[in-house]
Design brief:
Largest sheet: 5 strands, antiparallel
Pfam family, one: DUF2301
Distance between the termini: 33 Å
Order of helices and strands: HHEEEEEHHHHHHHHHH
Strand order of the largest sheet: 1-2-3-4-5
Radius of gyration: 30 Å
Keywords: Membrane, Transmembrane, Transmembrane helix
Number of strands: 5
Strand content: 5-15%
InterPro entries: DUF2301
Length: 327
């Protein structure tokens, strides 16, 4: 009977280990008895309940970052590799208050570096929106108003700060398709380059701010347009990912305003489009801080996976397939 139980234990022991960390119940110090030794006759009858409890713990065990956690997943989280697994969560058993999310390529959590990055990304959007709003205000203030000279003198500094803030956000934005992100950054760089050339070679000799020069010379839109095209791309990303109406409308209003000015639209139409653009930008920026930090990160496991070498990627995919096959 004892020999039969030992044979059964050898056959079952591999499947009774944790599929993630590979751990199993430990035998007592100096003992070589198998895990089911408690059931072999009356050798250790008092420990049978403890052994069963150990197996229950290991059966539900998963290892995340070296910590044993209990996963709360749905069937969607068990899909094949290459499909988004949703936001299944795991709560660390060692008192870690940060939630852990189940991503496409494994679990991830938001750390302090992520929080700083998201804060700077949102701060860049808010700063650029504030600069744009103050600059646009100059178009609605009568030229004989005492505020007009002050606003006019601030246009170039606002353009510099606003463009720089937008560039910061374009560097920090999380996008799964890297070529699209690089294209948006390239548009920003081309727009900044064109703006600087126009300001130095045309606006400065006339003693006018760049924004005023563009307003008076429609063709200058070609020089500064790529800068706003990058903002249009960012609005499209935000509208598509989060379903934000104001961002989706910005995607339409920004090119309509620039193309309308380039085509010689009526000044009242241009002012109306500019007012709508400004209002949408303010709403868009103000709502960024109402989102959870994880929303602006996306599926962090995708970015972590992309940072791996090809060999490490293959190992990771194989481990995921093996783990999900055992669920």
């Amino acid at each position: 009977m004892a020999a039969s139980m030992q044979l059964l234990t050898r056959q079952l022991q591999p499947s009774l280990r944790c599929p993630s960390c590979g751990s199993g119940p430990q035998a007592s110090a100096g003992a070589a008895a198998p895990p089911f030794a408690a059931f072999q006759g009356n050798r250790q009858p008092r420990r049978s309940g403890q052994v069963l409890q150990k197996w229950r713990e290991y059966a539900s065990c998963r290892s995340i970052g070296g910590k044993a956690v209990s996963l709360q997943s749905s069937n969607a989280a068990r899909g094949p590799v290459g499909q988004r697994t949703g936001a299944a969560r795991a709560v660390a058993s060692e008192g870690d208050s940060r939630p852990i999310y189940q991503g496409m390529y494994g679990p991830w959590s938001v750390d302090e570096a992520d929080e700083r990055e998201v804060f700077l990304y949102r701060a860049g959007i808010v700063t650029s929106a504030a600069c744009f709003t103050l600059g646009a205000l100059a178009a609605f203030v009568p030229s004989d108003s005492p505020l007009s000279p002050a606003l006019r003198s601030l246009l170039d500094p606002l353009a510099v700060v606003g463009a720089g803030s937008l560039g910061l956000s374009l560097v920090l934005v999380h996008m799964y398709v890297t070529p699209i992100k690089r294209f948006m950054q390239a548009l920003w760089a081309v727009g900044v380059f064109g703006s600087v050339l126009t300001a130095l070679n045309f606006a400065a000799p006339e003693g006018t701010p760049l924004a005023v020069y563009v307003a008076e010379h429609r063709g200058a839109v070609w020089a500064v347009g790529p800068l706003f095209a990058s903002l249009t791309g960012l609005a499209f990303k935000e509208g598509l990912c989060y379903g934000k109406l104001e961002a989706a409308l910005m995607f339409l209003v920004i090119p309509a305003t620039l193309l309308g000015h380039l085509a010689g639209a009526d000044s009242n139409v241009e002012l109306g489009l500019l007012a709508v653009w400004t209002a949408l930008y303010v709403v868009f920026a103000s709502r960024k801080f109402t989102q959870a930090v994880k929303d602006d990160i996306g599926d962090k496991s995708v970015f972590m996976f992309n940072d791996l070498s090809e060999a490490e990627k293959e190992k990771r995919l194989a481990a995921l397939e093996q783990q999900r096959g055992g669920l």
